[in-house]
Design goal:
Blueprint (H helix, E strand, L loop, with lengths): L1 H6 L2 E7 L2 E9 L6 E7 L2 E7 L2 H17 L3 E3 L10
């Protein structure tokens, strides 16, 4: 079901000096494995995995690399909670 598929996607946002990077995990469209969609500025590429652990390891590798290079986790503006 599309709703189930959407619920299993994960997107991480990173920001540095006004630039944004994202890392999105999702099921492959035809149901054969997994995809890691990496967007850096206006460029995106898709890495395909058959094994979910391999995808999770790659995602962790990217996130760690970005964090040590000064990128910071960022919450999308529409998900920021207002404390008032």
């Amino acid at each position: 079901m599309p709703g189930d598929l959407a619920a299993r996607q994960m997107i991480y946002f990173f920001r540095r000096a006004g630039d944004t990077r994202t890392c999105e995990t999702r099921f492959a469209p035809k149901g054969l494995g997994y995809e890691l969609v990496v967007t850096e500025g206006r460029r995106s590429h898709v890495e395909v995995f058959k094994d979910p652990q391999a995808m999770a390891d790659r995602q962790s590798e990217l996130r760690y690399d970005w964090l040590v290079r000064g990128w910071r986790d960022a919450t999308p503006p529409d998900e920021i909670e207002d404390d008032e």
